[in-house]
Amino acid sequence: MENRLCLIIPTKDHPEILGRFLESVRRQTVKPGLLLLVDGGDRTIEHLLGRFPDLSFQYLRVYPPGLCKQRNAGIRAVPPEYNLVGFFDDDYVLFDDAIEKMMGFWSRQNGRVGGASFNTMDSGCMPHDRRLFLRRLFGLSRGRGGDILPSGIGTAQYPCEKTYRSQWLSGGSTVWRRPVLAKFSFDEWFAKHGVLDDLDFCWRANKEYELYVVAQARVFHRQLSKREFAAGKITVVNNFYFVSKHPGFSKPKLIWAYLGKILFQLFSFLKTGRTDPLKRAAGYLAGFRCGMGRKIAKFDQHVS
Prior knowledge:
By secondary structure, this protein is an alpha/beta fold. The chain is about 35% helix and about 20% strand.
């Protein structure tokens, strides 16, 4: 069967950023068959679609918003003729041949392959760096990207030079075979922000399917500035939830790993003098208080 791609784009009150993303889709050498916009904003963005008459849209309103909630609603709305379903956050920008390269990858795969992600070129998260010894000491790395470690932490996947098999994929720029999405959905416990929802989804999917990062399918991630304290706290809380949900992971190893992360944030502060690393480290510590109790206290705020 010929592969047909539908892209689901959850969005909320980012018309200019979404417009930048859509402009990069317009320039694609191979365009997706359908863009399914799942809008959770206070103001609708339907007016924006008229600027892109050469793209095919389906518009879905989901309010109140939530990233996982919007993704799941998008999955349910995908027309049956599409056998590949992708997800993009609205703050990505695609290289002109990104979808062509991704579709080329899928044309060579069999049913064992369930998901693939684009290669984020500006992530700044190389799997191998000069602090590798310390990362191994704190259980933050095995020396390669795309692992989900015994601590329940996922190692960085991007950027990469060669296509490789990974245990998890970043949720903001992925393509999935349709049957995978029929078996698995995004856990809406992660609610508004969706931090680590991709780790949770991939841990389940990876037990049955192979996952890959496609090196030639390149994108940029133009992330909004983050509220560092909130981002740090949410990340820790959600990591505790992930470890509690799935047997086999270790809470003591998770705590030890985040102590290492706090140490790296302190190194960054001493090196640069910027206060953002201190705010992130404080957020990690605050997350311990919410995540280490018998019942994990959900921290449900936006991080940007």
